[in-house]
Amino acid sequence: MASRRNRTIDMPAPYLRRIWLDPSRVTDPAAYPFCLPFLLDGFELDFDCAVTIIVGENGMGKSTLLEGIATLAGFDEAGGAGGYKPVDHSDALEVMGGKLSSALRAGWLPKVSNGWFFRAESFFSVARYLDKVQSEDIPTLGRGRPPDFLSHSHGEGFLRFFNERCQKQGIFIFDEPESALSPSRQIEFLKLLRRMDVSGICQVIMATHSPMLMAYPQARLLRLSKYGLEAVTVRETDHYKVMREFCADPDGFVQAAIEE
Predict the structure, then answer these.
(1) What whole-number distance in Å separates Cα of residue 122 and Cα of residue 159?
(2) I need a surface site. Which of 21, 80, 107, 192 has the fewest CB within 10 A?
(3) Do residues 48 and 13 touch, judged by C-beta distance below 8 A?
(4) Per residue in 21-38, pLDDT tens?
(5) What is the pTM assigned to this prediction?
(6) Where is the AAA+ ATPase domain positioned along the sequence (predicted)?
(7) Quick one: 16-259 is in which CATH superfamily?
């Protein structure tokens, strides 16, 4: 008999429908992460489709927001899945998702705890963990012996890793997956994203700087700035505008950039 955690729920994604900041849970508004500009005047985010993509400049709090969402979903804030903690936090960058999640509230329909939180910084520690226990059965994964991810390149291992999981119901959170992927691998990731989307059982929340990934057609694209979140098109993002200028004249673009 399937466990409560792993049973399939007969409802389509999205499962996480809304998150919002509860001011009564913020102990010190001047402390990080509550001092982030987008949190100062309250915060809420609705999820109305299966794929949500968040863009914005460095320092706006995208990773912290994803860490907070991952913690709400029952994942390790440094990356991984619910039910076990494969990540060595001593090797991870400082994460603040647990602190943020303590002040967040969530609306689920229904609550789904399966899935994965991918952080580029922790991919190899996760892969090392799975390789280490490849002779053991891991109930959370439900597939017995995991493949040897470290025998492949970072990008290939990443794609194999999620190809193993994208057929399962769950919520999948990706923080800048392009850091593990070449441009051609990003195309493969878009195909993977498409399979997850059309399955109807996967909710994806992703932060990215890649215009190629931002262009996924079924996604809701949101820009995070000091003013909060706003819906944008790919062509309205600074990432696309910079890349367009570079592609139009690579030599001239680089020369002008380094002479500024």
Answers:
(1) 15
(2) 107
(3) no
(4) 999 999 899 999 999 999
(5) 0.85
(6) 48-225
(7) P-loop containing nucleotide triphosphate hydrolases (3.40.50.300)
